Amino acid sequence: MENFANSEDSERLQLQLERLQSTLNRAYRNVPFHQHRLSSDNIIENTEDIARLPFMERAHFAEHYPYNLFAVPLRDIVRIHTAPGTGDNPTVSGYTRQDLQVWQQIVSAALKAAGVDHHDILQIHLDAGLANWGRDYKDGAEAIGAGVIPNTAMSAEKQIMILRDYRTSVLITTPSAAFQLADHLFKANLNPTALSLKTLILVGEWIDESSRKELEKELHVSTWLHYGLSEVPGPAIAFECGQHDGLHVNEDHFIAEIIDPKTGNVLPHGETGELVLSTLTTRAFPLIRFRTGDIARLIKTPCVCGRSLSRIAWQDGRSDDILSISGVKVHEQQIRRHLESSLGFLPQYRFFVRKERGIRDYLEVWVAVGGDLLSDEIKALEKMVRDAEAKLEENLSVPVSVHLKEKSSFIFD
Predict the structure, then answer these.
(1) Which 8-state DSSP code applies to residue 266?
(2) Domain that holds residue 40
(3) Sequential DSSP letters for 125-156
(4) DSSP tag of 298
(5) Does pLDDT of 46 surpass 80?
(6) Nearest CA to 405 among 371, 379, 374, 363?
């Protein structure tokens, strides 16, 4: 068995190397951004040589908006997706037909690892900021013959009605949305045992073990964790098997590294740091050493399930100042820019990510006002605030609540 595992590892390393070389060549030939950063004589002789290459960061997406990071002609793109960026421009990612076919296989494999099959009815419940994930999960589930209830914007009450009446057996959602549904179930006096739900696939955000066990106990389900990127390429980059001992990285399609976020140096296996990902099969939008900002630990020891894939132990926190709201990445620069654009001036403000049980995660923004405003001025400002709230929601793809607060109610640094 050990010789077989070593042989499988060697074959995978060779496959990774060939695919990495192909990706680098395509990126160098077709993307000026990569031409300026990669040397034409930069020979990659093994996958560890990737550590000599420069990093990609989220800021690069905005700087090369909209199509300047595409490695194929626009005529070969069959899907274009937009996500909130960290600068003035959103992140625009493209997919070829082959990219979508590969992604369908990746998602299908992750679902199968969670025991999903053609007998299941699978319901997808994700916020607008993860709408592309909804499409990917729909395609992956349909490929294995499961019945799919696609992602649709509905109230928690409506989601529960569908859970009950349509006999959903698998639910894909974020941890915060799962807690919201659980609370609505009990408020409606509906016993979870009356549902057909047996599997809960949690995506978009990290969840601690105690909260996870709480969900399993309250909903009478087994939970499975998937890791992905909200910008590009999508969900299920890493997935749990039945052992629930780390998330298997799809190493036929990605190379994962753990770096020291301060120095950028690659850390030894087993140490905790920032997760860096490189795509191996993505044609339209290759990522080369992309800094995810997520904190993780790489596990190389074999898994009891028999898969030889490396695993990541996904951990709480981030290495950057980006907020994660139900899996959607939000940067303070975006909040500031949209506030100023809506109000016509940049006010003193504060913001918080609200994570309250039974309530969808949302961004709360406080705008400071003086205590000497006239009633007409307050009414006009309140209208501007509502407009700002709508603009923030539209551009950030997360729920937002903006409140006027007297300056004396909080202290600014």
Answers:
(1) B
(2) 1-320
(3) E--GGGHHHHHHHHHHHHHTT-EEE------H
(4) E
(5) yes
(6) 371
> Which DSSP state fits 38?
S
Query: Does the residue 326 lie in any domain?
Result: no
Task: Using the Cα atoms of residue 394, residue 397, residue 401 and residue 404 in order, give the sign of their dihedral.
Answer: negative
Pair 255, 248: CB distance under 8 Å: no
Task: State the first-to-last Cα distance of the chain, in angstroms, to the nearest integer.
Answer: 60
Res 56 pLDDT > 70? yes
- CB-count burial class (<10 Å; 0-12, 13-18, 19+) for 18: exposed
State the CB neighbour count (10 A cutoff) for residue 209: 8
CATH number at residue 190: 3.40.50.12780
Candidates 175, 163, 183; CA nearest to 201 is 175
| Length reported for the chain | 413
Query: Measuring CA to CA, which residue among 366, 334, 339, 364 is closest to residue 350?
Result: 366
Domain total of the chain: 2
pLDDT grade for 1, boundaries at 50, 70 and 90: very low
228 three-class SS: coil
* Secondary structure letter of residue 359 according to DSSP: S
